[in-house]
């Protein structure tokens, strides 16, 4: 009985490590096309939550659905990626010795990488998508730059671009602006907001200024604490919530 607009549905999820409940009866609903920021102090369970969504960690109890029909708990990591969930880890993992263009080309080949090595070319439609992604990530002028020569921010954007080549329906992004300059942060906020609508985007982030700029006035922010949702709502409500203030002051 899932709302049609819900793309990611987690209900009653719990997981323990050696008797310690890292996730404790977590409920999370992400709408199709939504950009959601998830914040929470260290140890709140943010990484574990992402691991559950991507199939890296199996919960002890609960339900996890993607769209109306895809039961995430029945699937392994590759199958979940294939179903349209892309994850960007904090550290960029681009191929430094390849160019920007080649990185995107490889990302598109996906598990057909072997074909690519054997000389298969991307077709016209794929080339259009690659150009679109280059534009989106702000690297249109630098397709032949070696990825190793890019700035930290540009590497992060390239990696987001690599995920986009697979046309995911849901993108999970882990602390994208760690180590970025202010200018790069602004550009990243623009990039992530421009993805919303076409994709659902879940951003786990520590930097409150960045969360504020991403969430704006209207988007929902979720605060995790001790493995469950402590508060949820607009940034303005959430940051004035007494429980949230206490948790952050205690950090
Ligand atoms: P966050 O990403 O919000 O900092 P985590 O999801 O990394 O939080 O961790 C939540 C809690 O679960 C922490 O107390 C952490 O120590 C614990 N934890 C996470 N993964 C494991 C694991 N594989 N084994 C034991 N404890 C873990």
UniProtKB/TrEMBL annotation:
User: Per its UniProt record, what NCBIfam families does this chain match?
Assistant: urea_trans_UrtD (TIGR03411)
Q: Report what the protein is called.
A: Urea ABC transporter, ATPase protein UrtD
Q: Does the keyword ATP-binding apply?
A: yes
Q: One short Pfam family name for this protein?
A: ABC_tran
Q: Which GO terms describe its cellular component?
A: plasma membrane
- Classification via Gene3D superfamilies: P-loop containing nucleotide triphosphate hydrolases
Q: Answer yes or no on keyword Lyase.
A: no
Upper classification of the source organism reads: Bacteria, Pseudomonadati, Pseudomonadota, Gammaproteobacteria, Oceanospirillales
Q: What InterPro entries does this protein map onto? A: ABC_AA/LPS_Transport, ABC_transporter-like_ATP-bd, ABC_transptr_urea_ATP-bd_UrtD, BCA_ABC_TP_C, P-loop_NTPase
Q: Which UniProt keywords apply?
A: ATP-binding, Nucleotide-binding, Transport
Q: Which residues form the ABC transporter domain?
A: 8-251
The terms under GO molecular function for this entry are:
ATP binding; ATP hydrolysis activity
Superkingdom as given in the UniProt entry: Bacteria
């Amino acid at each position: 009985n899932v709302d049609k607009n819900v793309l990611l549905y987690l209900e009653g999820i719990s997981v323990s490590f050696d008797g310690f409940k890292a996730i404790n009866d977590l409920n999370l609903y992400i709408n199709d096309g939504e950009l959601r920021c998830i914040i929470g102090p260290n140890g709140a369970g943010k990484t574990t939550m992402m691991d559950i969504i991507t199939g890296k960690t199996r919960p002890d109890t609960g339900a996890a659905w993607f769209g109306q029909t895809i039961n995430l708990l029945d699937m392994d990591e590759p199958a979940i990626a294939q179903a349209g969930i892309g994850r960007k880890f904090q550290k960029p993992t681009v191929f430094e010795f390849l160019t920007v263009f080649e990185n995107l080309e490889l990302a598109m080949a996906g598990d057909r990488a072997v074909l690519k090595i054997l000389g298969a070319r991307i077709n016209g439609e794929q080339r259009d998508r690659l150009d679109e992604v280059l534009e989106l990530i702000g690297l249109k002028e630098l397709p032949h730059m070696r990825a190793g020569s890019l700035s930290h921010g540009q590497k992060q954007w390239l990696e987001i671009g690599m995920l986009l080549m697979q046309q995911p329906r849901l993108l999970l992004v882990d602390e994208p602006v760690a180590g970025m300059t202010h200018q790069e942060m602004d550009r990243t906020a623009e990039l992530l907001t421009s993805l919303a609508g076409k994709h659902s985007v879940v951003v786990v982030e520590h930097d409150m200024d960045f969360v504020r700029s991403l969430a704006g006035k209207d988007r929902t922010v979720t605060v995790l604490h001790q493995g469950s949702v402590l508060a949820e709502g607009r940034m303005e409500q959430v940051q004035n919530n007494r429980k949230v203030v206490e948790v952050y002051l205690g950090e």
